[in-house]
Amino acid sequence: RESWVRAFARRVGRRIKLSSAYQWCVDDWFDDGVIKQLAALHAEHVFDVVFVEYVFISKAFLAFPDTVLKVLDTHDSFGLRHERYLASGKEPRWFSTSLAQEVIGFERADVVLAIQSGEAADFRARIRAEERTQVVQVGHLVDEVPPVQIPYSRSAIFLGSDNPINTSGLSWFIEQVMPLIRREFDDFVLKVAGGVCRTVSQTDGVQLLGYVEELGEAFSSAAVNVNPVQMGTGINIKILDALAHGAPSVTTRSGAR
Q1: pLDDT tens column, 24-68
Q2: pLDDT in tens, 129-165
Q3: Is the pLDDT of residue 76 over 70?
Q4: CA-based nearest residue to 215, from 142, 141, 114, 127
């Protein structure tokens, strides 16, 4: 738990957009009491391999001896992650740390999994040469599915969760892009599916589908898939899923990364 002095300093720093106010040390969110419990589990089961999810949980590796293969599944790059939000005029969310602190987490692992090639190259460049840590790229794995039947209609689909990046991108598309489309085609409909439906009202030209059981159900409901996100990190799973289903997509530069 953060002291009230540090919490107050963090709030003040964020008011003036001080970069350090958005950064945490890599272990700040970790509960040290977990290490004893993990060590007890290892004593009972003698694990060969241990996976840890996210760099800010990497301290968990300290519960295991060198005989255990330690694999860090990063999911995302958290070094200076907040700067990407600030550069896009957004309030930073979730976890961000310094580049040096992130490397501390990397070097606790034998293998670091990166989700895209750019992040893999960055991680390798920052890990010290004398360390035995290897970086391996393992992207998002998609299911093998037959292509969906795309309808001939003036419609698009946006499928996503209600995280702030999706919410902001959808709002931008509805407010800035849809008026331009509907000026040419007044019957154009944007269909919205997934948790992001909770963040938008059903207005003229917007149809909320809610949760869908199958991704193909969403992608086959419109002529084109759109991904209007303005920023982000990691990999754009929405685009990979759309491509896997054979759905044509229109996206921003960030959405195509």
Answers
A1: 999 999 999 999 999 999 999 999 999 999 999 999 999 999 999
A2: 888 999 999 877 888 889 999 999 999 999 998 888 8
A3: yes
A4: 142
Is residue 93 within 8 A of residue 131, CB to CB? The reply is: no
**CB neighbour list of residue 201: distance below 8 Å, 6 or more residues apart:** none
The one-letter amino acid code at 236 reads N
Q: Whole-angstrom Cα distance, residue 205 to residue 161?
A: 20
Query: How many Cβ atoms from other residues are within 10 Å of residue 56's Cβ?
Result: 22
Residue type, 59: K
Phi, psi dihedrals of residue 207, rounded to the nearest 5°: -120, 120
- In 3-state terms the chain splits into helix, strand, coil percentages (rounded to 5) of 40, 15, 40
Q: CA Rg, the chain, in Å?
A: 22
Alpha-helix runs per DSSP H in the chain: 4-15, 33-45, 81-87, 99-106, 117-126, 164-172, 178-184, 215-219, 237-244
* pLDDT band at 195; cut points 50, 70, 90: very high
Residues 97, 22: Cα–Cα separation, whole Å = 8
Q: Which two tokens stand for residue 120?
A: 């893999």
Q: How far apart are CA 155 and CA 169, in angstroms?
A: 18
Q: How far apart are CA 170 and CA 89, in angstroms?
A: 16
What is the predicted pLDDT for the residue at 206? Answer: 95
- What amino acid occupies position 175? E
CA–CA separation, 238 vs 3, rounded Å? 39
CB 60 within 8 A of CB 38: yes
Query: Is there a contact between 62 and 27 (Cβ–Cβ < 8 Å)?
Result: no
pLDDT one-digit tens code per residue, 206-234:
999 999 888 999 999 999 999 999 887 77
